[in-house]
Design brief:
It is found in: Cytoplasm. It catalyses: 2-(N(omega)-L-arginino)succinate = fumarate + L-arginine. Strand 3, helix 9 (209-215) and strand 4 (220-221) form a beta-alpha-beta unit. The strands form 3 sheets. This protein has a two-stranded antiparallel ribbon. The protein is mainly α. It contains 20 helices and 6 strands. It folds into 3 domains: 5-105, Fumarase/aspartase (N-terminal domain) (Fumarase C, Chain B, domain 1), CATH 1.10.275.10; 121-146 and 161-188 and 226-358, Fumarase/aspartase (Central domain) (Fumarase C, Chain A, domain 2, Up-down Bundle), CATH 1.20.200; 361-458, Orthogonal Bundle (Ribonucleotide Reductase Protein R1, domain 1). The protein has helices at 14-20, 23-26, 30-46, 52-71, 84-96, 98-102, 109-145, 165-190, 209-215, 225-230, 233-259, 287-310, 324-348, 353-360, 367-376, 381-398, 407-413, 422-425, 427-433, 442-458, and strands at 150-155, 158-164, 192-193, 220-221, 267-268, 350-351. The structure holds arginine. Arginine binds next to helix 7. Arginine is lined by residues 22, 26, 83, 109-110, 113, 317, 319, 321-322.
Length: 459
């Protein structure tokens, strides 16, 4: 029997019952729902709205229900209960009678559901922050282990200037450090208590919203009951944080996919992070990195879906809001799995420094440094750029590198060139010269690594 059977004469239709139900999704919120009900019941007793005996029966009943759900002996049926709130409340009333029927005094499912969802969002944000840290740890360790390795740095996916592998990996660590901050901000946004807003307007019972705020570990009560029951922007914040981090992971995944091709050969994925082919015996495919890249679409899609659901909704609660949870849960679950997969992949991949170095020798990575050499000797930089362009053309014609040119070849372009030009052609020296804060010189990257480690330790 439905909780609103008083006003209805016909029974439920099986299809609309199913269509209107959120139980398959929100049953995951059982623990939050029970915590909310315990806090509400105890507060009702403290305020003299229900008796202390009723409150203890409620608490005991809810604790037992929780144990039965977790033990698998209590399974809810969508034809009986539309959502987890009704399922638990009906079960409680079946078990303890009138005390259970008093629990919903001064409460609506409208404030109940968003209380549960906020508790859930806080928990998932924290879980994601942990998973984010685990991935950062894997990247930091890999950066430390291969600190001095040089690879080509790219712009437009063309060889640009040599960089340290540690520098390259740290770029992702910083993206993830900001993602952590976004998750923390989403957690803080969820950290406000809607309970006591009732259906939309508050209630005539003397509820103590500050008491349930403390009992449930919220930072503050939400000051407007209409706002409290009708907005889900805290889920948008969480899904935005998930979306940005997914985008970052897709970039990392894409690079690992490229790096593991025969063309690059910079890394080999561990067997457990690759799959074979059912027909081509030689294949080792980076499926898991591809999935991380691909799942970004889901996460961003989840964000956009809820944005569209919220658009133009009049105040206060509308059933449209029931659509909020599935995507938010999916976004958090997906990102958590992707973090975990990426951390394992990074920690277990084999790095091939000689392949990176060999590529760094190609593509005239020293060109900027030769131009800088001339500019530092007084030639205007634009002119120096032109001169080095000619030298690169010469190399192209001869099929050689800048390093293979004789001093006379350099001198033919500019008499500013001396024997010390050799220092600009050496990858190690090129890297070592970029000592600006945030640059690729080992001294600068060491400082950066320590900064990233400090941020990691502080998070
Ligand atoms: N299952 C509903 C949801 O997830 C709970 C709130 C229902 N409130 C209502 N007035 N129908 O949003």
């Amino acid at each position: 029997m439905a909780l609103w059977s008083g006003r209805f004469t016909e029974g439920a239709d099986a299809f609309t019952q199913q269509f209107g139900a959120s139980l398959p999704v929100d049953e995951k919120l059982y623990a939050q729902d029970i915590a909310g009900s315990v806090a509400h019941g105890q507060m009702l007793a403290a305020q003299g709205v229900i008796s202390a005996e009723d409150a203890s029966a409620i608490v005991e009943g809810l604790v037992a229900i929780k144990a039965d759900i977790e033990g698998g002996t209590l399974v809810f049926d969508v034809q009986q209960s539309e959502d987890v709130h009704m399922a638990i409340e009906s079960e409680l009333t079946t078990r303890i009678g009138d005390a259970g029927a008093r629990l919903h005094t001064g409460r609506s499912r409208n404030d109940q559901v968003v209380t549960d969802t906020r508790l859930y969002a806080k928990q998932r944000a924290s879980d994601l922050m942990d998973a984010n840290l685990a991935l950062r740890a894997a990247l930091l360790e890999t950066a430390e282990k291969h600190f001095d390795m040089i690879l080509p740095g790219y712009t437009h996916l063309q060889h640009a200037q040599p960089v340290l592998l540690s520098h390259h990996l740290l770029a992702y660590v910083w993206m993830l450090t900001r993602d952590f901050e976004r998750l923390a901000a989403a957690r803080a946004a969820a950290d406000a208590n809607p309970l006591g807003s009732a259906a939309l307007a508050g209630t005539t019972y003397p509820l103590d919203r500050f008491a349930t705020t403390t009992a449930l570990g919220f930072a503050r009560p939400i000051p407007n009951s209409l706002d409290a029951v009708s907005d889900r922007d805290f889920l948008l914040d969480l899904m935005y944080a998930c979306s940005v981090s997914s985008l970052h992971l897709s970039r990392l995944a894409e690079e690992l996919i490229l790096w593991s091709t025969s063309e690059f050969g910079f890394i080999t994925m561990a067997d457990s992070y690759a799959t074979g082919s059912s027909i081509m015996p030689q294949k080792k495919n980076p499926d898991f990195a591809e999935l991380i890249r691909g799942k970004t679409g889901r996460v961003v899609g989840d964000l956009v879906a809820l944005m569209m659901t919220l658009k133009s909704l009049p105040l206060a609660y509308n059933k449209d809001l029931q659509e909020d949870k599935e995507g938010a849960m999916d976004a958090a679950d997906t990102l958590e799995d992707c973090y975990r997969c990426a951390a394992g992949m990074v920690a277990t991949m084999t790095v091939h420094p000689e392949a990176m170095m060999a590529q760094a020798q190609k593509g005239y990575l020293a060109a900027t440094d030769v131009a800088d050499y001339l500019a530092k000797k007084g030639m205007p930089f634009r002119q120096a750029h032109e001169v080095v362009g000619h030298l690169v053309l010469l190399c192209d014609k001869r099929g050689c590198d800048l390093e293979d040119l004789a001093l006379d070849d350099f001198k033919a372009e500019s008499d500013l060139c001396e024997a010390d030009i050799a220092d600009c052609l050496n990858l190690q020296a090129i890297v070592e010269a970029r000592t600006t804060y945030g640059g690729t010189a080992p001294v600068a990257v060491r400082q950066q690594l320590e900064e990233a480690q400090r941020a990691y330790a502080a998070d």
